[in-house]
Predict the structure.
Amino acid sequence: MDNYGLLRVAAASIGTKTAYPGWNANWPIRSLIDEACEKGVSILVFPELCISGYSCGDLFGQNLLLKKCEEQVAYLAEYSYEKNMAIVVGSPVPFGGRLYDCAVVLKDGKVKGIVPKTFLPSHGEYSESRWFASGRDLLHGPEMTYAGFDCIISPNQLFEIEGAAFAVEIGEDACCPIPPSSYHSLAGAQIIVNLSAGNDIVMRDIRRRRLLSEQSSRTVSAYIYSSASGDSSQDTVFTGHASIWENGTQLACSCNSLMHELTVADIDIEKIDSLRRKSSTFAAVTPDGIPSSSYLPLYCQTFLGKGCCTDFSKSLFRSIERHPFAPESELEDRCRKILDLQVKALSGRLDKIQSKAVIGISGGLDSTLALIVAVLAFDSLKDTAGSRWARENIIAVTMPGFGTTSRTKNNAWDLMKALGVTCREISIVPACKQHFEDIGHDPAVHDATYENTQARERTQILMDIANQIGGIVVGTGDLSELALGWATYNGDHMSMYGVNADIPKTLVRNLVKWAAENCFEGASAQDGRRVKDILLDIVDTPISPELLPASESGEIQQVTEDLVGPYELHDFFLYNFVRYGYSPSKIFFLAGKAFEGIYDEDTIKKWLKTFIRRFFNQQFKRSCMPDGPKVGSVSLSPRGDWHMASDAWSDDFLAEL
């Protein structure tokens, strides 16, 4: 059974009874262990001091309480036998004449290790140092016997389960300037677990979420946080917080829970490893590079063996983003930011060379977005007299060919006029017919020569007009087309500045729609047709290169997604292949979950094979692509982001799928 690099983890919320270890261990902790086992959890994390309760105060000085805690840890260690799960509980642990606030790691019927808290907070009259010593005195990893088991007690520990390494920090450890988890991650921990007992006050939940998000992002790790609930209400309120994070993103959360419950998520260890390998800043800092006087110089590693045998194909505690380039939850902000980046990039290039802009306008999505960016760029630029650059210096050229429909042509003309740019129409039909005659091609044969002749003729016209006026050709091709090589080499593949080069097709559509609703609300063409209405009609137009003749009724016959596959699938494949380096089989698995009920497995596999073949075979087009602004985490520019041989073989990738 393939786990696809996933590991199921859980944070437990329990209402503890203060100074009652027997009840805590035998009722809420044991019952949640059983539930976690049924759900296939491999790492289960309980709150800080969950065996004793956090608010015992001076009762921590009572030998009876400490003895009962040790007995219950021994009981839970025995209960962990054959559970195939690492269980992390919080308990006070005496050692060397001192008492430590500890996390105890249990598995296979044994205590596998004990991790003491390092940074002890002082909140008003409640100072943990009154009862506990800091774990910084135990960095060398001494051995001890606890609950009948020989183990190491030290903050410097890694525990490996199912090939994934996790480390522990406790409560306030996460709040210090350089948390222990920063060093844990550099030592190889892909997962950080935090047993906490932070009481709730106004706004603390917001600060906590921000801290956990930033720390999991900074350490490129998964972070499992479990905080106490119930406990004492004498001067504080413990409402419980359990959350699981992955590289800054919250996977699951349970807040203000006074119930006994699990917060479960499937974390992607393969994703974490991939992001770390690609991060030059993460790789630049290693434990060997840390000065010897720094915290946590050495680590002990304990191998815990197998976790639960989880069938992720049947259940998945993880949300798979169907449109990773255009997630619904942040689409508004993303569109605003990306359009701003495109405008700043183009205006910077135009200002530097003091150039006019030439754009081919088809009435389709890509050229529309390029025109929008050009107009906004010109509006943002000012000459030496302080006047805006005139939109008339944007030369927009529509070039109808054999497959141009009235809908796209009318939209192109209406949009150009409404935006106040210089409009030109040059039919490519006569030139293409002459070219067919020159090379001896039968125009009735609608092959690649027939189609590519039109694309190259359009590019030639734009380049020559740019030479005439001293301008540059602003390219319209997008990231999805670059990935698939869905462009005519030295045709629409080429420009002098590819303003859409980093924008995938699923995002192009959203950007045009966002611009329609936010940038051009009041503008209209001379016939009264609003820019917004024109743009929204373009958004609804089927994607097509329009290189084959239209139907008898004038409708588009050459629909791109019928030929090459749905762009939402290809963009999903592209993001996961390039961003995380996932194998084809894992991408297939994730796509099946993301598009369940939309595409069946055969359809997904068919287009994934197409993606792999085209991505490899069409690299030569990307090797010589023009300049263009980077706006996201996935880019195929050969100058800084994607280096790949043009004759790389795809056989192993196709075979693996």
Q: What stands out?
A: The radius of gyration is 31 Å. The CA atoms of residues 130 and 241 lie 26 Å apart.
